[in-house]
Amino acid sequence: MCQHQPPCPSADSADRDCARLVAHHPEQGWSLLCNGVVLFEDTGELLPDGRVIAPHRPLDASRVVTAA
Questions:
Q1: Residues 6 or more apart from 38 whose CB is under 8 A from it?
Q2: β partners of residue 28
Q3: What is the mean pLDDT of the segment spanning 45-54?
Q4: What does DSSP assign to residue 13?
């Protein structure tokens, strides 16, 4: 799928989230990557073959920032 040089990571690779954005819809909470992965703002993913990757936000509460 990817026409970039060097090519973006495939949907099956561990670093699939590093592929370039094709479409970004923050108002709807999702983005489409050039490898066919739909990435959701909660860090969940939908792979091109229909597999679902559950959200994987960091559990380290010290990194959480709240608005004043």
A1: 30, 31, 32, 45, 46
A2: none
A3: 95
A4: S
